[in-house]
Design a protein that fits this description.
A hairpin with a 4-residue loop joins strand 11 and strand 12. The protein has 357 residues and is of the alpha/beta class. The longest helix has 27 residues. Helix 7 crosses helix 8 and helix 7 packs antiparallel against helix 9. It has twelve helices and 15 strands. The protein folds into two domains: 162 residues, ATPase, nucleotide binding domain (Nucleotidyltransferase, domain 5), CATH 3.30.420.40; 132 residues, ATPase, nucleotide binding domain (Nucleotidyltransferase, domain 5).
Length: 357
């Protein structure tokens, strides 16, 4: 039996007492709400055993910064009590971080961290004493190691820790949301260069990843809610009714729906053009070419969207699978609808950190 399987068997068959084996939740806090997942290791692999989403009032989180700490604390405390966890891996917002790449001398983790720390002011536009950073090796070269890193202002980390402490949740790890999302969507060991398109309610996040590491990230200030508003305006219906119409008709519409499709395309075309521009920027750098695009996020399920984007981007575009690194479907069935699961990519990736690099 391979070593990994033997280790898994020992943990499953002879588990430690429950008070020693506390689950680690993956928690994603965004402008639209808080998403939480818990995973459990079985003999056949990992399974999703709990998930939850709690909406936040407008303005509670803005630009990755928590404005209404009391509300966020209340929700986190309630989730921890209901699902019985005290440990969590937390996402840091992409919009508040500084992604960088560097060639550093050395091969070991300690050598690379020391080298990065000595030059951190070259990568992060903040005083070195105010920076919290982490790095991960991407490749070995003649100069040492090419790494991907991300830096945050100490204040950003401290503010988030303050909220978690007030919620009686102990943080095991904090990482950039782009690292977590790539971990969820791409299989362990994958080496391709792919574009991940995360369409949320009010923003669309783009990230080019290689070896499951983010190389380029940006956030567009337009998301799926703009499409909902377009449907509301066209049909004169409520927001909830507009969401249903958007899911059913998408960009396809149907017979006699030319005006509806035109209304939708006038909004989604703005997103498409920005994605195409950012993709071209990456391709023109002479870096690794993007082989495909992966759609994810709570608003990625618009009917006809993958085909619409594929025609413009000239690369395959497909919906993602946030359970790529969990047990095979032949062994378990997720307790969540597939379309709904696309909103949980970051939270799943955070929980996976305990099991999959």
């Amino acid at each position: 039996m391979p070593r990994l399987e033997l280790s898994r068997f020992a943990r499953v068959e002879f588990p430690p007492p429950s008070y020693l084996s506390l689950p680690t939740a993956g928690i994603d806090i965004s402008a639209s709400g808080i998403k939480m997942v818990l995973l459990k290791e079985r003999l056949h692999g990992l399974e999703l055993v709990a998930y939850a989403e709690e909406r936040l009032p407008d303005g509670a989180v803005t630009g990755g910064e928590i404005s209404d700490k009391e509300k966020v604390c209340d929700i986190l405390s309630s989730l921890a009590k209901k699902y019985r966890f005290r440990l969590a891996n937390i996402a840091l917002s992409e919009s508040r971080g500084y992604l960088f790449e560097a060639d550093l001398p050395g091969l070991t983790s300690s050598e690379l961290r020391t080298a990065a720390e000595q030059r951190i002011d070259e990568y992060v536009p903040l005083p070195p004493a105010e920076v919290v950073f982490d790095i991960a090796p991407l490749s070995i070269n003649a100069e040492g190691t090419h790494v991907v890193g991300v830096g945050y202002a100490h204040r950003v980390v401290d503010e988030l820790l303050e909220v978690l402490d007030a919620s009686a949740i102990r943080v095991r790890a904090m990482e950039g949301e782009t690292f977590a999302l790539a971990r969820a969507l791409l299989p362990h060991g994958d080496t391709e260069t792919a574009l991940i398109i995360d369409i949320g309610r009010t923003t669309t996040k783009l990230m080019v990843v290689t070896n499951r590491m983010p190389r380029y990230t940006t956030t567009l200030d337009i998301g799926g809610h703009a499409l909902t508003l377009a449907v509301q305006k066209y049909f004169g219906v409520s927001e909830e009714e507009a969401k249903k119409v958007k899911a059913e008709k998408g960009l396809i519409g149907g017979d006699g729906a030319d005006e509806y499709v035109a209304a939708m395309l006038s909004t989604v075309s703005a997103v498409r053009e920005e994605i195409a521009r950012r993709l071209q920027f990456w391709q023109d750098r002479g870096s690794e070419k993007v082989s495909r695009a992966i759609l994810v996020g709570g608003n990625a399920t618009v009917r006809g969207l993958p085909e619409y984007l594929e025609a413009s981007l000239k690369i395959p575009v497909e919906l993602g699978d946030v359970f790529t690194n969990l047990a095979p479907r032949s062994e378990w069935l997720p307790p969540i609808d597939y379309m709904q699961s696309l909103a949980y990519g970051t939270a799943v990736g955070l929980a996976l950190r305990e099991y999959v690099p």
